[in-house]
Amino acid sequence: MDARFDIVVVGAGMAGASLAARLGKQARVLVIEAEESPGYHATGRSAAFWTESYGGPQVKPLTTASGPELHRLGVLTPRGALTIGRTGQEREIAAFAQTYGGVGIAVERLDRAEIAARIPDLKPEWTCGVLEPSTCDIDVAALHQHYLATARKAGVALWCRAGLAAATRVSGGWSLTLADGRRIGCDVLVNAAGAWADPVARKAGIRPLGVAPYRRTIAQVAIEPLAPDSLPLVLDVAGGFYFKPESGRLWLSPHDETPSSPCDAAPEEIDVALAIDRFEQVVDRPVLRVEHRWAGLRSFAPDRLPVYGFDPQDGAFFWFAGQGGFGIQTAPAAAVLGAGLLLGEVMGEVDPEPFGAGRLLGK
């Protein structure tokens, strides 16, 4: 056996990096990553925003608790989010405002004139909306690098091109075989493998929880006139699109959730076309060309809440998965919560009970 650690974290994306940064000073930690560099998959393909309503009311505590650290690190830039509806969708807009205002998010109902003042060339059928002034853009790369650097300074080891090939339960922990042939031991195995969370569990002989990946598409497009930097993040109350400005261009998504196997996701032409069509139904500005397109995998447990905690059938296997599309914006609070559970300490302000793995196994 080449080495032994207290904790081995599978996955060096935002989830694994943030958790390792919290653990490094208190345990011997190794992060193993299958790719050549950390953050290649979901972390590197995020739409890069922090908005308290995203993910639903049960995820909101994680997002809100993450805000102070994200501001302190200087990775947030004010943007604002505007959820809009057509004539006839006033009830949906009212319900959105009531739901999220009721859990403490600052929201403001807007009428047609107020929406049009924020979205140039808005088509006439879009008449109602809700503004979330607190929404910000996130510098995802800077945040990820902060966690990697913090972990490294704390003594955490990072091995890339070292995916998990096999995991055998032994007395006192795990014997792991990596894709590069190395064999290591650890007391606790942490599953922060994103879209590969269930396959990692299977390799360890742990019952999968049904964490399923879904493809999400984003296209960067040029429009005329240029997209103003003052444009908020614009979302459809029916969940059909979102778009935001990026250096005069627009990032568009059709808000797709296409079931996928764990893979290096690639955008489909039909989804890019759908994003453009939905945008052009909102704003009377033609898309001139698609400059860049990409897709990433968002992974959800069956109830769409993240999974943080020890597996109820094996106290040496820890789940840190199922973060969906909100894993970046909740990373600080999730890392505090996860580290507290792993170390047996009370940490942070978020109740871990709703996120335990046992809920998915009827325990």
Tell me the radius of gyration. Answer: 21 Å
Distance between the termini: 35 Å
Average pLDDT: 95
Would you tell me the structural class of the helices and strands? Answer: alpha+beta
Low-pLDDT ranges: none
**SSE order in H/E notation?**
EHEEHEEHEHEEHEEEEHEEEEEHEEEH
The profile of the biggest β sheet is:
9 strands, mixed
The total beta strand count reads 20
Helix fraction bin? 10-25%
Shape: elongated
Estimate what percentage of residues fall within beta strands: 25-35%
**Number of alpha- plus pi-helical segments:** 8
Describe the structure.
This protein has 363 residues and is α+β, with helices and mostly antiparallel strands. The protein has helices at residues 14-23, 60-72, 90-101, 112-118, 140-153, 197-203, 269-280, 331-343; strands at 3-10, 29-32, 49-50, 76-78, 81-86, 108-110, 126-132, 136-138, 157-159, 164-170, 173-178, 183-191, 212-223, 233-236, 242-246, 249-253, 258-259, 287-300, 307-311, 314-321. The strands form three sheets. Strands 5, 6, 7, 13, 14, 15, 16, 17 and 18 form a nine-stranded mixed sheet that branches. Strands 1, 2, 9, 10, 11, 12, 19 and 20 form an eight-stranded mixed sheet that branches. Helix 1 runs parallel beside helix 5 (140-153). The two termini are 35 Å apart.
